[in-house]
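User: Sequence for NADH-ubiquinone oxidoreductase chain 3 below. Tokens please.
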Amino acid sequence: MMLLMFMICIIIIISNIMMLLSIILSKKSFMDREKCSPFECGFDPKSSARIPFSLHFFLITVIFLIFDVEIALIFPIIPLFKMVNFLIWFKTSFMFILILLLGLYHEWNQNMLNWTN
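Assistant: Structure tokens for NADH-ubiquinone oxidoreductase chain 3:
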């Protein structure tokens, strides 16, 4: 066990030394400065590349991802209908869809689904 821990420590130390050496010995060129600037058809950009992002679009994206994953979870419920007891299948399906609908209702009340405020 001690040999294994010793080997792991040696590997970590060697990898850290290699990373530090690559940072220290890397050749900085004039062209590296251009990698940080945005590219706009060879011209200097007219505005900043870091424009403010509307939080509303981010919320719409998160809502889409949540509902997309939940819809993917609904698909296996359909074939399960023949494999399990109907009452158990109905209760779990009903609860799952009820939670989906409650989430949709909450988002609707919070006006998260409107494109404009």
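Residues 54 and 60 are 11 Å apart (CA to CA).
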